[in-house]
């Protein structure tokens, strides 16, 4: 029947359907009410205005669009209108829509729904709070520290502003015009769209446009909303718990009141047992109520979830896929979401689905391709957008939105250029980013003095000389000694530089130790004609070298200058005396004056050396070259150079092996010639050209105007000016032929000035050697253009527009000569310089009538678009801006050659694709230039995967795009019964509403399943747009809704958030670890709060290259420097800090960290390099990772952070507020740290929290020593966090809630219990302050019967921790003692297997031996295998017993009935409620039976809780939980 309703519902007669439905309903019996669970996640900070968030979206598009939007929203002040939320929202979209493309406008709606930019608005709010704002101000300005809320006082505060310190500017600041440091800075704090903001904004715009102030805008909301920001982009799962051991509290808690608007069922698919109720309600609204009842009955009959037989499980993956593929195309995504997200409730009905054998065959055929091309196995998932791989496990939705926006810009740009459909996607696939190849210079130059020659010198005569020797097998790491100049090391040096002696000593060491390295020297000394070697030691050394080289050879000359340097004492410089004394000692009969003096015959290569250095274009001396490739500066440090050189030789040996093996290099070829003829060797290296920071013109806009009418050109927008210039240029090329040229260079300069003509001349010289290139000319006049000062420019423009290419080129070349310019300046007629073949009459006519408009337009383009000053020079290569060049900067023919060589490969690829479009050659060349500029500027260079070859006839869901619009190619590969599919299907549903896409979903099913593939019901919280209620107000924020839930299973709620979010449960009285809906009235509303954003980092000591273990960082503000702090671990130098949006200062902690170390450099932070205080701005929900390098202070080189001294950590962590510290304040206690027992414990769920309170009480009843408890905050319930301060006050203990986010690089666990086990052992070195010397871990379900001071003071005999071994005395349990046989018996080799319920850690020893880092390293290796570490917290330390020794504690420290006999119980100092694998007895029953005092403790605490609840009800308690802690503003 169900199948009939699904397949034929569209054809059924209304009356028949109503009859069937009513008959069905008449036999129904409804036994239970529908139960629901909802989950929300909010920020701590107030909801930020959508208008401000939209402005930040536009700021990411461009600075101009941001300011256009700000100006546009000044016209109407929303507060003037009492309109609804819908009115304000539509107002924002309308204003943004005037600036954005349709695709980007859709993505803005999504960004507002996601609240992406709330974080950056809140960041500005925090910066404003630090000012702080003046009293009663809705908007204010800060001018160099002076603030005012009155726009009329602007002039007053601007006076003498420049005498006050300049403000610090953040990367996210909005600056109206290009920064000018000579002007004062006015920072406006205000809310865009308000009247107060508008009054300031208009005045500041006027002053900024007039060039009298730098106008900086920062958001500031004077009256924040009372609402919080509701977040989305996270997942929530209700995992079905095993009830093998009952771990549920028997304390009754009422369910939460649910908002009925939240649980309204409006899903359009809403598929139940094959019935598409969403469709049925639309088609037959007259029987809506009956359908509702039928749906309810079907749900209850489905949701019982009886276990399936193994034979029923086998084909579940294929059967689920078959159900999805059978659905109508438009509904397939919704069916997939429904089946995968609710799989445990759907599995039984899915088992009845028949799978077509052809579908199965096609899936298996595709799986072969998946494995070969993508490395995917059956059951794996993958997602590609335009060929870019998206890993939803790693990439949060915020990163995906960034990718969508960037792809949209690319595709819309290509679409605007007239490229559509398949051709557009073919161009997108091109990787236009040049390969990360290093460029080198040619070392075949007479200025290089070669000290040795491996092929000719007798020193190497015993070495083999065949290149085939490279292919002979040898041990790894062995440097091959072959008589070929494979490896060449050239030093370009100034003899007087203080680094020169050490570099030459290193070169000498290479030579002495027979390293197969040819060594060359280039001396850069004074090259003036009158240089005197008797006065200039550099010149003297060069001439002395030449003399000895002529008398003997270069090697002897090298040894002579080494002798000269050896005479120089530390602190001295090389002098004439050192040189003369060495020469006189080695050559007794010489006349020193004739060798060193002005008329020396040994002056060879003095000018050539300097010329070669200049020609290379390399930076400051000294320079080292390996086979022409320059060494980075830091690698020229003598200590580094040895190691780096060995690596280079080994790396390049592999390259030479390859070319010899392929036959590209043989014995007949000169190795140096072969190496120097590689495409990466260029005549000159220009760092400006090779820089990775590149800026491109936008050339994809449309422009109807050219440059001939300046009055119209001046009104164009920036992008339109670029296109107008591009469309009006006439070009020069090597030949006048119809040919698509891949490269277009624009040469920019003042051609009526010698510097501009020189640049043009160099470009024309290069043009003679390249037919891949065309050159266009843009004039940037040095002064206001007139007919008199633009003769050459106008002549060039006229020639380009009236003559053929060859004549124009010859004529323009003539005009670049200085003698021509001089003659013209003296009054010569331009026609005197015409060349043969020119059409003089046409030329003269245009030249005489030509207006200055094109020059004014070019000048405007240079100023407004390129941000160039008058007369400055630049080159634009296929839209890439190279420049502006400095006044004296050389840019010659060799630079044009380099620019062409790095741009050619990508341009040639684009040319090939454009050629297929069959358009006219000049237009095609224009298109290549514009496409190259677009792809190079917007594309990130990631590899795109071609996914065209999979079979999609039967086994894929296909959604076709709307025609004639830009569309995204989206390909998903998934198994519908996996966790990936649970998240992928709702994501694709949202994507389908956001963008036009060509979607293909390939099924990648697993065969022969043996267990239930999914054991959780899942919701991914994501909405394409903000939703509204019927009255026009905002609907409650995004919610995870679990409706019509089965009531028999026991669930645990798990929230899966992006990596950088730290969330906590708030305001929920129900136990989210044990949800049993059968016992609840109504439902459960779980509320979570984003407590912190994570700031992660990696830290290294530059001296050792190793992480500085135990180094501490703090994060705070200038007013409150230490709000949170952290410790660096040895694994990857990792550290983590937590904060909320804002600007924070990262510093070394005062104490040993700051005494021993200083910050050397940082990467990824917001402050400029070289500052001790590192500013980090958190302005996004995305992950933030920084890198910090530190260095020991010179006087502290021998000191270690983790020393044995005790004074190092006095006062450390006093201000950390990971949780509210209960009990008396530390200054009142005045306790020495040895007098506190520090106890660590973890708990999750109400039952274990009940056990935890009882454990704490049992500890306190048996000790006089002050106790401090440390609890893992991550999993504690709101109830526990609310109660604990009152318990601390009553019983007089201290406590702290500690938190640590599981690092992303450490293998993740997915089950909550295993995550908690991981926290027990993996982070002991970083969870606690360094001041805590010893910590005791006590399981929550333990009862303590002795003073734990005794355990704390126990001697661990040098071990970092002590555990109790498992008891062996209860003989009936022998069959369960797994450690007696197999792997454990073999591994332990007679040692005990220890239990993890109680242990003591000597944290000083633990850190000293890097035990935490070792444990994490071993965990990382073992945890990849799902069969390893079944009891993670216990197996790991036992597995590491040989590397990290365990002190076995006396047996009486832990007694547990499962393993220990009754006789030993009376000596027990603690009793643990271990699970019993034989009886499976519930914990509560065991507690009451085994421990007589347990119920007494339980009743005492219940009485106190009852008293607390009554006081709370009567309003007499003031709960100070962590949420009210003053530090949590962070």
Verbal overview:
- With 1530 residues, the chain is α+β, with helices and mostly antiparallel strands.
- The chain has 51 helices and 49 strands.
- Strands 1, 7, 30, 32, 33, 36, 38 and 40 form an 8-stranded mixed sheet that branches. Strands 43-42-41-44-47-46-48 form a 7-stranded mixed sheet. The chain has a 6-stranded mixed sheet with strand order 20-25-24-22-23-21.
- The longest helix is centred in the middle third of the chain and has 24 residues, at 638-661.
- It starts with a helix and ends in a 17-residue tail after the last helix.
- Residues 1-32, 259-269, 1204-1233 and 1519-1530 have low confidence and may be disordered.
Keywords:
eight-stranded mixed beta sheet; 51 helices; single chain; 1530 residues; globular; alpha+beta; seven-stranded mixed beta sheet; disordered C terminus; 49 strands; disordered N terminus
Can you tell me the residue ranges where pLDDT is under 50 for at least 5 consecutive residues?
1-32, 259-269, 1204-1233, 1519-1530
Q: What is the tally of helical segments?
A: 51
Q: Name the overall outline.
A: globular
β-strand percent reads 15-25%
Instruction: Report on the biggest sheet.
Output: 8 strands, mixed
Which value, in Å, is the CA radius of gyration? Answer: 39 Å
User: Which class best fits the helix and strand makeup?
Assistant: alpha+beta
| Distance, first to last CA | 59 Å
Fraction of residues in helices? 25-40%
Number of strands: 49
Mean of all residue-level pLDDT scores: 84
Quick take:
The protein is α+β, with helices and mostly antiparallel strands and about 1550 residues long. Helix 29 crosses helix 35 (about 855-865) and helix 36 (about 895-915) crosses helix 37 (about 920-940).
